[in-house]
Amino acid sequence: MEKDQLENRMRFAEHVLERQGAVPLDINQKNRELLGQRVTYRLGGVYYRIDHAEIEGKTFIILSATESKEYAGIGLMDDIQAISADAGDETIRRKLLEAMA
Amino acid sequence: MRVSFDLDEVLFVDPKRFETEKPPRFPMSLLFPERLRKGTVDLVHQLQKEGFEVWVYTSSFRSESYIKSLFRNYGVRFDDIVNGFRHQAEVQRNRRQTLPTKVPSHYHISLHVDDEDAVIRNGREFGFKVMRVYEPDEHWADKILEEARRIRAREEAESRKA
User: Fold this and answer.
1) Under CATH, what is the fold of the domain B2-161?
2) Which residues in chain A touch residue B27, judged by CB atoms under 8 angstroms apart?
3) CA A13 to CA B66: how far, in whole Å?
């Protein structure tokens, strides 16, 4: 998948979080600058972040989460959902909502 | 009545030594490398069907989101989850005395299933019931169900007397 296509899909995934009421936070600055980690969101008591991973030659959008404010602040989160990056909008939305339920 | 389970060495086991549930499909099998002891899914479902609340009580610091997501891949939904963070915030709190890593009675859990000797000993000292599960045992689930039913029957008999 092309870089800008992947960025588009990850941005869509972040938009799904925002539509649920997730709020972007200004935390984890160090890892955002050094490692390119994306913005962290908070929804209810849970912190979420969208990422991507290449697994066995296939690209996946990864949803990570933690309930710990300290861990979220240093980018330490658990991967809880993996969605094929070439999935359609509805599949991405459904799988994200399923993971956040 | 509440029944809780530890995770490591109780529900999460080494597939080289134990029979395990079929792992989730790729790529979730990589995201969630822990393997469930065979019989876990049916046991949790049966306990819930019989009206027990089924909790996880782990001293690990796996996030609640991770634990929920892992088990969701197996079609299991726990009634509640206590992890290391929650135990620290709700049980240990600011106490000077270091409490055991698990105090199921704090959450009104009537039976906790664990592998550790220390938890069994703490159960005797702090007044909570623990059932030990640690070796491969094809009847492990039946034994837990039987013990849960026995405790519930006793609790119901005691509350009728009161």
Assistant:
1) Rossmann fold (3.40.50)
2) 55-56, 58, 60, 82
3) 19
How would DSSP label each residue in A81-94? EEEETTS-HHHHHH
**Local confidence band at A39 (pLDDT 50, 70, 90 cut-offs):** very high
**A-chain residues within 8 Å CB-CB of B26?**
55-56
The residue range of the domain holding A76 is: 3-100
**What does the pLDDT look like over B90-127, one tens digit per residue?**
998 888 888 888 999 999 999 999 999 899 888 888 88
The verdict on a CB contact (< 8 Å) between A78 and B85 is no
Residue A79 CA to residue B105 CA, distance in Å, equals 31
Separation between Cα atoms, residue A87 and residue B37, nearest integer Å: 32
Interface test with B, best of A78, A83, A95, A98 (most B CBs within 10 A): A78
Q: In this predicted complex, what is the ipTM?
A: 0.85
Q: What is the pTM of this model?
A: 0.91
Q: Does A78 touch chain B (CB under 8 A)?
A: yes
In chain B, domain spans: 2-161
